[in-house]
């Protein structure tokens, strides 16, 4: 997860294999088998975040941590 606000002025949750993973300014959330626990970990740290569609399209979350429609 980025420590600095990035896209749309929010923090971004990335997977370790993400093509858009920044090289700096990351905060480790942990190791997770699927999206839900990673999103919950992000929610505990930052009020506003998104999960990158490039990382895992099925995990995409809109700004604020709401599931994409």
Explain this structure.
It is a single chain. This protein is of the alpha+beta class and 69 residues long. The protein contains one helix and four strands. Strands 1-2 form a two-stranded parallel ribbon. The chain starts with 10 loop residues before the first strand and ends with a strand.
Order of strands across the widest beta sheet?
A: 1-2
Low-confidence stretches: none
Roughly what fraction of the amino acids lie in strands?
Answer: 5-15%
H/E element sequence: EHEEE
Mass-distribution shape: globular
Annotation field: number of helices: 1
**Residue share in helix:** 10-25%
Short description:
16% of the residues lie in helices and 14% in strands. It contains one helix and four strands; from the N terminus they run E-H-E-E-E. The protein has one helix spanning 35-45, and strands at residues 11-13, 49-51, 61-62, 66-67.
Q: Key terms for this structure?
A:
single chain; alpha+beta; two-stranded antiparallel sheet; 69 residues; 4 strands; 1 helix; two-stranded parallel sheet
What is the element layout, followed by pairings?
Elements: E1 11-13, H1 35-45, E2 49-51, E3 61-62, E4 66-67
Parallel strand pairs: 1-2
Antiparallel strand pairs: 3-4
